[in-house]
Each structure stands twice: as C-alpha cells, then as structure tokens.
Specification:
Layout (H helix, E strand, L loop, with lengths): L1 H17 L29 E8 L6 E8 L12 E4 L12 E11 L8 E8 L10 H11 L6 E11 L33 H14 L3 E6 L5 E10 L2 H18 L4 E3 L14 E6 L8 H14 L1 H7 L6 H6 L14 E3 L6 E3 L1 H6 L4 E3 L8 H14 L30 H4 L12
Parallel strand pairs: 1-5, 11-12
Antiparallel strand pairs: 1-2, 3-4, 4-5, 6-8, 6-9, 6-10, 7-8, 10-13, 12-13
Helix pairs in contact: 2-9, 3-4
Length: 430
Amino acid sequence: MIDRLSQTRSSLRKMNKILPPPAIPAPEEARLDLKSNHYLNLDQHGAVMAYYIWIDGTGENMRGKTKTLPRKPTSVSDLPEWNYDGSSTGQSTGENSDVLLRPVAFYRDPFRRGDNILVMCETLCPDGSPHPTNHRYGCKDKMDQASAHKPWFGIEQEYTMLDSNGKHPFCWPKNGYPGPQGPYYCGVGANRVHGRSIVEAHYRACMYAGIKIAGSNAEVMPSQWEYQVGPCEGVEMGDMLWVSRWILCRVAEEFDVVISFDPKPIKGDWNGAGLHTNISTEAMRHPGGLAVIQDAMKRFEKMHIEHIQAYDPKGGEDNKRRLTGAHETASIHEFSYGVANRGASVRIPRQVEKDGFGYFEDRRPASNADPYAVTGRIIQTMILDAEGGIKTCSRETQTPEIPEYNYINKTPLSPTDLDIKIEKKEDVLF
C-alpha cells in the first residue's frame, strides 16, 4: 500500500513538471469571460472594421453589421451610407426591402479595439427621406430650432439582467423569489448584488468608446441596475444612449446574460424600470431658473397625454404596467410635480429649490423608450410650442406615415383609452 502511494506521488510530481501552468491571456487577447481570442492581434493593414448600428421596427431593439473601410475615418462625413433588408427588421416589405443607413456618429470600438469603430445610424427610405421609424430626424430638427436655449440632458437608464433564456431574472431562485426589496439598492455582497462584473465591464467599455457615462448603481429590485449618461446637449443625448445600450447588451453576451429594458419585467411587489430624464436650459441653470422650471410644468401638465404616448414604444401600453402610483412612480392617469418627490411625474431636486435654479427630472419615460422621441417631445412642449415653433416634423416618405410616437403599425392609445385626468396633488406642489 505504501509503495503504491509513493508511486502515485512520484507520477504526480512528474506530471506537474511536464504540464505547464494554465496560460493567462494577455490583456489585448482576453475576452471578458477570460477566453483567449488570439485573432484580435492580427494586422488589419490599415483597414478599419466599422460596426453600423440602427434601431429596428420595434422601436426598442437594435441591429448591426460590419463594413470594412479602407482607412480610419476622421469625421462622420468619411463614413459611407449603407443599406439593409428592412423586411427582416419590420421596416419594409420583401418587394421593396432596402432601407438606407446614414451614419450620424461614431465611437471607438471597445471589443475590437485599435482603429475599429461603432457607428450609430439613422434609417432612410429609398428616396432618402427619413423612415417613419426614424425619430432622430425629427428630434434633431427640434434641437436645431431650440439650440439658442442650449438644452442639456442627463438620462438614467434602468435595466434588468436575465438568465440566458431571457425569461428568469439573473441569480434569482429557480423555484421562488428573493427576499423583499430593501437591502438591494446600492448594496454590496453576493446575497444582495448580482452581475457586478457586467456593470463594471460596461462602465469601462463606455469610457473607452467615448460615451459620456456619468455613474452607475444597483437598483431596488435584485439584478436590476442603472447607469447614467450625460450631460449631453441636443441630439447627442439620443446618440450616446443608444450606443451605450448596444455596448451593454454586447458585454452581457460574453457572460451569457440577457439585458431587458422592459419597464415592468416582474409582476407583483417589485420595482419597474424607467428612463428618468433630467433636463435644463440655459435660463434654468442661472439665478431665477426655478421660475422658468415652474413655468415649464404648466406646459407639461397640458401635454401630459402626448408625453405618455411618446414615452414608450407602444404609445403608452408599456408604461401602463409601470406607472401605477406605486413603487416610486406617479399614476399614468394624472400629472404632478414636487420637490424631492419620487412619487411625482416630475421631481425637482431639493438643492434646486434651495439654490433657485438648476434642472428637473421627468420620471415618466419607460426604460425601453426611444431617447430621441423623449427628448424631442420635451423640447417641443417646453420651448417650441411656447415660441410658436413646429408642431410636427413634416416629411415625405415612400412608406405609410405613422404617428411620431408609434414605432410599429398599431393604433395609438387615445385619451379615452388611457383615461388620463390632468390633476395636481396639493401635497406635492410648491
């Protein structure tokens, strides 16, 4: 018996001498899951891989494909237009399937690195006019008209991590629920926080790309997180937020995790997810700005229905599940605003009340809302309507016109359907 043990130990010592220790990939070769990708070091001979990103017919999902460029671009004008099969994305028919891609912004690619880039695109009809699902076009038009006001935006993007099947919250019990909400918000520890590796990787990837990511935190529901982008001026807000969403989903791929932007992914006593939008104009950012904010609230109150219709891809249907008046939301049926009140439609920070100037937070947009539609609607109500500006963006297209807030061919909700009652609550007002 002793001889056998000695022989076994001797054999193990020999094996340890023969077998080298596990190789740790060099940083430039390692993926986020620590599996090597040696091909990232291959010479591209000056050519650049450009990944074109666009929004599909759902108004909330992104598509993308790669194009080779002969050299590194220095401006958006260096990037060629392209096209794709719109019949496969819910944006055209098979008989007239081409939808054009026009680059509007580009960023460093944190996955391929080097001179490779991510390209945000808007969609066009075959005649070059904006596609009905292209809400960037109208947003930019409104931002250009309001440029003298220097509108700044900062958006808080909430999201939920799901298992690879896209149905079950990441790290939740398979046959039950985690403990009640309370200890998870900004928490620490494996029993309170799940998916931090994805959050950290996404943060760094956004910084590398040039996205103006401003912060992140764990949210109230376990496996739910938030990150912030901004401040951004004008249409840049939408460009950066869409690309940051793509980066997040791409990072999560490497962990076999699905990112959900659904505004109410889990029914019951669990928080939903929003796209809280912080806004200020130059007048609001200077002494006396609080009065300008209060004046804007009067206009927001009158246009509550229009904002609800613009604040999710289904014209208000998604937000009906979230804006219930519970779980730090206001009811979808009424408009309210207040200081430091997270149960109001619009929150004015306590510090803004104290200083007499600053910004406000519109808490109504759903987490899956199009930031182009959200920020464009805000500028329309807050500035252009007050100045007699455009009501809508006129455009001629080769496809049927659909409402600005409606991304797919569905009948938008009417005021009667939403049963919206514009009513302030005295306990949350100035």
